[in-house]
Design brief:
The complex is a heterodimer. Chain A is α/β, with parallel strands linked by helices. Chain A contains eleven helices and 15 strands. In chain A, 48% of the residues lie in helices and 18% in strands. The longest helix of chain B has 30 residues, at 104-133. The chains are: A alpha/beta, B mainly alpha.
Amino acid sequence: MQKSKHILVLVLVLSLGVILVACGSSGTNKSNNDKSDEAGGDDKSKDYSVALVTDEGGVDDKSFNQSAWEGLQAWGKEQGLSKGKGFDYAQSDNESDYLPNLTRLTKDGYDLIFGVGFLLQDSVSKVAKQNPDTNYAIVDTVVEAPNVASITFAEHEGSFLAGVAAAMKTKTDKLGFVGGVDSELINKFEVGFVAGAKSVNPNINIDIQYVGNFSSAADGKLIATRMYKDGADIIYHAAGAAGNGVFAQAKDLKKNAPEREIWVIGVDRDQHDEGKIGEHNVALTSMVKRVDLSVQEVSKLGIEGDFPGGKILEFGLEDDGVFLASTNEDAYPEEIKVKVEEWKEKIVNGDIEVPKTRDELKKFEESL
Amino acid sequence: MMTNKWFNILVPIFSVFTGLLSGAIIMLLFGYNPIQGYIALFQGAFGDPYFFGETIRQTTPYILTGLAIAFAFRAGLFNIGAEGQVIVGWLAAVWIGTTVDAPMYIHLPLALLVAALAGALWGFIPGLLKASLGVHEVIVTIMLNYVALYSTNAIIRNVLTESADKTDMIAPTASLASAWLENLTYFSRMHYGIFLAVIAAVVMWFIIDRTNLGFELKAVGYNRYASKYAGMSVKRNIILTMIISGAFAGLAGSMEGLGTYGNMTVSSGFSNLGFDGIAVALLGANNAIGVILAALLFGALKVGALNMPTQAGVPNELVDIIIALIIFFVASSYLIRWIILRFKGRGNK
């Protein structure tokens, strides 16, 4: 008797749920049918389709994932495509999602799939081996496979210019560098920055510290607090979201003492907006990495049938793949701009070889 | 007694159902079709061999962390430290996997054993502190999670590699990866670990329901003072519980290290395997079979959810909310229990 009552309750609730779901769906049927028709459409046509898989940051990370997605959207717009029809993205919440996301997009029949960020290196390498007929591209690192294009940036060259600008701007002859994770990639930023600063002033002091991750703004702020207290007046960050803490600290200091000269150099995207505080702006400049441009470029090559499989593409100063933003005109005067241009010429002409690793930096410093 | 057993089955089913229902309502409110959404979820988890393999792959560590937490719950302990125990187990497994050179029948069991021992050690510390000084295990295990995370990162950087951000791949002799399971499932990362996880569930059931130790643990869980009065050593039982619980979680870590990834990466945050394990244990009503089923559900949700944005157009953020709602209702099974009791009470009048 007891039992049957419970079953009755369960059945009632179940059926209520089914009715609710069924009612609701009829209301939205139309719009969703349209959507699925669109999605089905691209399977039939022979159109070239491109997708990307983000790392843990997601497409709204204000950094390179977002930039990559913007590039893909721009490419799609050019081709007259819309999201879900010709191009799309899959977001990863953590490490274990990379491979399923890549595999799913492969199975969905995309012709070219981007893995955004060096964290996806192993996964792209694996999936490329399993699916030799699909093309892949990896951003920020190298995967050696005939169907993978590796997109890298000359971060050291851009950082070199940031170092030049910082060394000219500083009043205390003390600079700071805040890195995300101590890795080969972020070392390129550090080494380039140091080399650039020392090229201008060999006796300059540079305080280098790593946060240990790309996400903890609180830790970034703590490090910036210490650096500014120790007399650094310009900090260059290559720490993703953790670098927002550097901006936060600089803005706090500026707010309390508006006459104090405190600057931050942003990274990846033009972070001018991050630096705004009242009528001031603490963003001296940003070392911009055109991930969007590279994604657009490789997609274009792909649709034209010239996919650069197995090649390593480096986007550098000469093709504006990396450059220094000059949005903050008050802080970034003509004088510095001209000087930075001069150094840029030297790098592009091959007069100086910017170091990429700490060992190369040692040699570079000796040659100064 | 009869109603109690009935309840343990009804409540989780009801929780999952309520969760799915509220997820559907959320999707409706935002103008998405919940049926399409759930079809995408289901296909993303079981739709073809690849996704099925990935679901099983995700389920494997969930079973083990679920068992770890359920085991501690049975003795009245709340092991929030499963996360840290997973991390040290993972590290230990990869350490043995990359440095030791031995034939497979020694290498693999050794790696698993050391992973379990590492997890057990990480469980022993809070167990000892609780038993000897009365320090609450929740505090200690939370803190030890961070100790595990950051020490592991430091060890990967400075001991296992020369400041690289991931370890070498383990030797094939220590690997749980299986070519035939991978071929069966179109290159998914499904590995032999699932069999180990099921065996571990049997072990847990055996210890809890068929041994003196299990009886004592449960007694301590029900009433610490009565157990002491009955002549049981409460301290010994607390320490043992945490050791066994930690060993389960350590094994979960080895599933990732020896099966899924084959290496370990410097990580800025937790894997969440241990935390999700809490929900798995709750949903599984702290018993072995329940944990396996709950882990399968969580594995399916986790893997299937990835398919919702691309196939059904439901945005990632909404998918996270829906999954969280399901977990919320699962975790609030006490509330549901209470509501059902109320309902029943009224019916009897």
